[in-house]
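Re: that backbone. Tokens:
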């Protein structure tokens, strides 16, 4: 008989079969519990049982759980089994994100990065402290209640500045009506930070980062946060664009080669002429050509929904674990479409 596990923080539930450990059941049903050794020795998968009790095979506690800890409700998910329903806390396995706030920012600069893409820099008020995870996004708010969403392209707001990469969208209220008329010092109302796309440090796996278009913006923010870090995992970045002149960040990205661990940058062009000597075609297919085994990687996808859907499916065929695939789809907005998150 299967037993139910209630997750205290979210109200979610999953079921543990008699032959399963809690960790095995969670993995099977897409519930994230960090783990490492999976034989009870390291404590990475430790959870807190807040209602009920767990049991262990042969009534033998794993090495990472002392007798008094067991009595206090601590459990090793990789070894714990159930003979009744329980409630658990996964607080140690969930990241705490900065609180969302609304602030007014002023335009610092507007520069064309390449045809159809602009780099917009905003200055926050000196007295306002803004925190966000590299990779998160913000909303630009309008007086009529509408909003437009853009990923932040910098690692932090240490100097009170925020950078956005904005692709022009046919019929777009912001990109075709507001953006061309912005002047230095103009005020914009922001809501930030938003979203759950960011670097998951606990994974410590080689990273494959895949972007199309301005999906490079949150990837840039994440990678900037890893520059010169001793604990940076190996990184491969694939960026899909149409033509060489569209690779507006290529020179900056290439300059990171000595500041990231085993860094590899692969631009992939879909409409390059004969002079282009690099990779061609679809960015997700190039990843599989270079990495036939993705089972040990953490994968970050950002860009068009079509790319993300195809890449997620394809990468799983090449061994990628869906628990370590993180995605942020950019749904382009115009005035006749509803507001959707993470827009470029």
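Recovered sequence:
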């Amino acid at each position: 008989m299967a037993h139910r596990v209630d997750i205290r923080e979210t109200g979610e539930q999953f079921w543990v079969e008699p032959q399963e450990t809690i960790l095995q059941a969670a993995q099977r049903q897409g519930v994230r519990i960090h783990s490492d050794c999976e034989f009870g020795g390291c404590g990475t998968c430790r959870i807190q049982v807040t209602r009920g009790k767990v049991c262990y095979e042969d009534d033998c506690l794993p090495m990472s759980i002392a007798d008094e800890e067991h009595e206090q409700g601590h459990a090793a998910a990789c070894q714990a089994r159930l003979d009744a329903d329980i409630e658990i806390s996964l607080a140690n396995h969930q990241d705490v994100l900065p609180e969302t706030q609304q602030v007014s920012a002023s335009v610092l600069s507007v520069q064309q990065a390449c045809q159809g893409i602009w780099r917009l820099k905003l200055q926050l008020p000196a007295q306002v402290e803004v925190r966000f995870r590299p990779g998160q996004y913000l909303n630009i708010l309008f007086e009529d209640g509408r909003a437009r969403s853009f990923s932040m392209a910098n690692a932090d707001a240490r100097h009170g500045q925020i950078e956005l990469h904005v692709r022009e969208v046919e019929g777009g209220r912001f990109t075709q009506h507001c953006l061309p008329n912005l002047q230095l010092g103009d005020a914009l109302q922001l809501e930030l930070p938003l979203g759950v796309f960011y670097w998951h440090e606990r994974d410590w796996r080689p990273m494959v980062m895949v972007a199309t278009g301005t999906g490079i913006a949150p990837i840039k923010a994440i990678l900037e946060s890893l520059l010169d870090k001793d604990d940076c995992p190996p990184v491969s970045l694939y960026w899909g664009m149409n033509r060489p002149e569209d690779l507006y960040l290529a020179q900056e990205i290439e300059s990171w080669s000595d500041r990231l661990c085993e860094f590899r940058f692969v631009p992939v062009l879909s409409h390059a002429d004969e002079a282009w000597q690099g990779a061609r075609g679809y960015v997700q297919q190039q990843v599989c050509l270079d990495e036939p085994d993705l089972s040990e990687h953490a994968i970050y996808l950002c860009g068009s929904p079509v790319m993300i859907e195809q890449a997620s499916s394809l990468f799983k065929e090449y061994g990628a674990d869906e628990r370590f695939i993180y995605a942020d789809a950019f749904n382009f907005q115009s005035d006749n479409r509803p507001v959707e998150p993470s827009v470029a």
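Confidence is low (pLDDT under 50) at residues 333-344. Residues 101-194 form a domain with the Elongation Factor Tu (Ef-tu); domain 3 fold (CATH 2.40.30.10).
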